[in-house]
Amino acid sequence: MAEQSSDIQPQNSQEKPMQRGGGEEEEEEEEEEEEEAEAAGEGGKDRASRAEGQVHKLIRRLSREQVQIRVHDIKIKGNRKTKDFVVEGELEEVKNAKTMQELVQAATVANARLHRLGIFKSATITLDAGPPELPDTANVIVEVEEDPRPFSGDIGLFSKPEARTWTVEGSLKSKNWLGYGETWNGTGSYGWDKTSEMSVGLSYPRFKGLPAAFMTRVSLLTEDWVKYSSYKERLFGLSVGLVNDEHHDLAYNLTWRSLMDPSHQASRSIRRQLGHALLSSIKYTYKIDERDSPVRPTRGFAFASTSQIAGIGLDSRLLRFVRQELDFRYAIPLGFYNAALNIGLSAGIILPWGKGFMNLATPVSDRFFMGGHSSPVCNLRGPTSLLGFRSRGVGLTDARRSNTDSSKVEVTCDTSGRDTLGGDLAVTSFADLSFDFPLKLFRNAGIHGHCFICAGNLTTLTGDQNRPVSFKEFSSSFRYSAGAGIILPTRLFRIE
């Protein structure tokens, strides 16, 4: 913190020398210059000592009591393109500070927010004393340096083991193009399984009076699930983010959805849902993660809750359902070989709403599907991960047209000729024990081992052909898997 000082510099009085001639006069002038230099040095030392004493006095005062102060002015420097109100929007708490302690804390938070905007190469906040005629005031000076490279992009080749396919993904991002702190980004991907996605998004930082940032995205997504469920899905939608911060995410989604059967062999349960539908929904996610690492947690907990209400609007043809997901993770350190026990529980339910909802089937695209090779330790994505089973490998199936038997049976392996239908109620749990190897080479590289046990099940709850399932039947039909493996962690993900 920098403060202006109103030190009064003492003036040195010098007697007027007597007039003398020759060398004596020159010698006296040199002596006078030396005396003046010594006096100036002593005066500088005195001023530095007084300034240091004032700083120590202020620090002691701040530690003993609340020092009342108010912000007189905010000065912004270095923003050649960025509008002033973009920076001011991150300084609301600074303006409202009533004490010096609040001002320092608010300035620290505001500085972190300016860096999180991602449009500045550097940002510095300096607190200075206000005008002398206005005591107990402060001026806030914000100096920013804009990023000289507003464009960025990347492209990569990714593997999806659960689907046994590869995808090429790329993105292009532009920041602060118009000077409003906005971020334009476009993404695209194409998979060997003919799954493709294109989207364009725009996000703004929070403005004055708004509690959070504003984000909107237009996307076109095509997913091919013919191999598992005999349908291909195309989504064209608009998503508007209303609240987005560290723990909360609230968004509105408007999506035009088309389900097609390119193979013309879909089962009766899938054929009933083919065609077009409009999804209008509000989705809210609350997430807290207090674990020491998202890749290999050894202590702490995490919790996530996702709620979705679909059918917002007056059109009776809108898809109408409520969907809820819950995730809980807890890591317990064991105190030897850096071992830790991770336990987790995930549950989800989806139900239609409206007149006669128990006879209505839920949309197949929004149901829960279980299986694949994604780690349940790291992910907080609902009850979807069940190690040891193929993608969409658990739950009810229905026979395709080529099969004369159209009755529904439960399967847990890859059975040709049947469509996986997913479930309305899903529950998964796991216990995972991770530990270091004795070899120092493995420990230094972060390579460690783990053993796990997983359990999960899902079932349907509504539909005109649905048979009610009792709690005893549901619990007795759980699927289980157990195993061990070696984990190679990286900064962003881990390889098992």
Radius of gyration, whole Å: 33 Å
CATH topology of the largest domain: Porin
Biggest beta sheet attributes: 15 strands, antiparallel
How many structural domains are formed by the residues?
A: 2
CATH architecture of the largest domain: Beta Barrel
Q: SS-based structural class?
A: alpha+beta
Note the gap between the termini. 50 Å
Strand content: 35-45%
* Number of continuous helical runs: 8
Organism: Taxus chinensis (Chinese yew)
Biased composition (Acidic residues): 24-39
Family: Belongs to the SAM50/omp85 family.
Protein name: POTRA domain-containing protein
Structure write-up:
This protein is of the alpha+beta class. It folds into two domains: 70-146, Ubiquitin-like (UB roll), CATH 3.10.20; 225-495, Porin. Helices cover 18% and strands 41% of the residues. It is built from eight helices and 21 strands. The chain has a 15-stranded antiparallel beta sheet. It has a three-stranded mixed beta sheet with strand order 1-3-2. A hairpin with a 4-residue loop joins β20 and β21. The longest helix has 43 residues, at 22-64. The protein is globular, with a radius of gyration of 33 Å. The model is unreliable at 1-22, 403-407 and 409-415 (pLDDT under 50).
What is this structure, in a nutshell?
InterPro entries: Bac_surfAg_D15, BamA/TamA_POTRA, D15-like. It is a multi-pass membrane protein. With 496 residues, the protein is α+β, with helices and mostly antiparallel strands.
